[in-house]
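[audit] Reproducing an earlier prediction to check determinism. Same input, same settings, fresh worker. If the tokens differ from the archived copy the diff job will pick it up downstream; this log only records the rerun itself.
[audit] input (176 residues):
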Amino acid sequence: MDRDIERFYEFLNRRRSVREFMDREIEEEKLSRFLDVLRNAQGAANRQPRHFIVVKGEKREGFNRVFTKEGFKNAPLCIVACAEPDKAWVRKADRTNYAWVDTTIAITEMIAASSAEGIGTCWVAAIDPAQVKTILDIPENIEVVAVIAMGYPKEPLVVQEKARKPLEEIIHHERW
């Protein structure tokens, strides 16, 4: 296997959810790159029904009440990922709205980019979306998908074994 490809897969295996962060700000040039990844992410029919709110600095103090875990309160930066269903592509066959799918694609790509630069992240879904909307004055027609806590991890990002189902349980060839 080509060394670049091998390194890519090692990188994917290094990525993990980080719940404890160093007291160190993320550099603005890195944040700019991460935000550009969010902007450039692919999505259904290029409708781009996604919005992201960067919460950092003094605004974090009031925002921290959305978290149940202390470690997230120490993340120097949070990105609130939102979907706008009214702007999304909708699959005709079953009327499935792709706003959340498009938003999660962008989040996943941004998490990969931040991991490549040594920034730890955690996709936090254990939040009260109504509370987040109130704190950040998010319009009614916008849905809160997740909060991404970001920062330099207290522990280095290294390859770790993860408990995963065997392929035979999740991959189906031609038929279920």
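[audit] rerun output stored. Observation attached for the diff report: The chain has a mean pLDDT of 94.
[audit] end
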